[in-house]
């Protein structure tokens, strides 16, 4: 029985780095970076973290990608042309948390055809083992109240057939998730 649990833990230890690595999001999924697409709906159910990548796929020459601030996003203000990404397979690594805005600077694609994307990037995934510890609280200056005289109930014993589960934020790695 214990060997099954050890084997499962070994598999998780091997697979964990692959699962914990950054997620690559193709903006617009199969539609790619194009006009007349609802990027608000596309981004709505996605969770972006520092280290994740956005991939903007489009036909080079027909579109481009500009990283802009919130005001330029709202107004579809196009930055200088030398700031454009133009390969048709542009990859942006999300390096910092916070709001991020992207627009197409070709013609009126942003203003009239909705070719713009706004997302919120969260902190990177942190495993419990590497999470920073909080400093210990200093001892109170007054003595603590004595412990109650009635003994506490014993902690319930764990079920005999538990499956190992590893939680990373809202991602669950395990058999019983």
From TrEMBL:
GO biological process: response to symbiotic fungus
Record-level Gene Ontology MF annotations: electron transfer activity; metal ion binding
Transferase listed as a keyword: no
InterPro entries in the record: Cupredoxin (IPR008972), Phytocyanin-like (IPR039391), Phytocyanin_dom (IPR003245)
Compositionally biased residues, Pro residues: 143-161
Location of this chain's protein in the cell: Membrane
SUPFAM superfamilies from the UniProt entry: Cupredoxins
Gene Ontology cellular-component terms listed: membrane
Keywords: Copper, Disulfide bond, Electron transport, Glycoprotein, Membrane, Metal-binding, Signal, Transmembrane, Transmembrane helix, Transport
Domain (Phytocyanin): residue spans on this chain: 23-123
Chief subcellular location: membrane
PANTHER family xrefs: BLUE COPPER PROTEIN (PTHR33021), PHYTOCYANIN DOMAIN-CONTAINING PROTEIN (PTHR33021:SF533)
Name of the protein this chain belongs to: Uclacyanin 1
Organism field: Vitis vinifera
């Amino acid at each position: 029985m214990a060997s099954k649990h050890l084997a499962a833990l070994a598999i998780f230890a091997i697979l964990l780095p692959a699962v914990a690595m950054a997620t690559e999001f193709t903006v617009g999924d199969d539609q790619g970076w194009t006009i007349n697409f609802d990027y608000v709906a596309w981004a709505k159910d996605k969770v972006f973290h520092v280290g994740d990548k956005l991939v903007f796929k489009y036909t080079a020459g027909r579109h481009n990608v500009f990283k802009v601030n919130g005001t330029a996003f709202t107004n579809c203000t196009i930055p200088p042309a030398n700031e454009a990404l133009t390969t048709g397979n542009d990859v942006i690594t999300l390096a910092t948390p916070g709001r991020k805005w992207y627009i197409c600077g070709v013609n009126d694609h942003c203003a009239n055809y909705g070719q713009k994307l706004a997302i919120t990037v969260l902190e990177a995934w942190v495993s419990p083992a590497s999470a920073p510890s909080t400093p210990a609280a200093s001892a109170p200056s007054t003595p603590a109240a004595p412990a109650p005289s009635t003994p506490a109930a014993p902690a319930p014993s764990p079920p005999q057939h538990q499956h190992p589960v590893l939680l990373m934020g809202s991602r669950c790695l395990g058999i019983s998730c």
